[in-house]
């Protein structure tokens, strides 16, 4: 997968991962991919809902130890 930007949001509690994701997404062009790393357990539902409401696509997510990784393509 071609990733255009990586956001490290580890150690941040809700709503900061979403706030940082939104800011990072604003720096990307349509079709580009943002990779997000977070330790917030609520991020899966939060980022899924946020991506959908913003017209973006959650391409993939995985859990690696206590780190959740997400790949979102800008709509």
From TrEMBL:
Q: Identify the InterPro entries for this entry.
A: TusA-like, TusA-like_sf
Sequence ranges assigned to domain UPF0033 in this UniProt record? 7-31
SUPFAM superfamilies hit by this protein: SirA-like
Against CDD domains, the record matches this protein to: SirA_YedF_YeeD (cd00291)
Annotated PROSITE patterns? UPF0033 (PS01148)
Q: Which domain of life is it from?
A: Bacteria
Name the Pfam families for this protein: TusA
Family in the record: Belongs to the sulfur carrier protein TusA family.
Query: What is the protein's name according to its record?
Result: TusA-related sulfurtransferase
Q: Which organism is it from?
A: Priestia iocasae
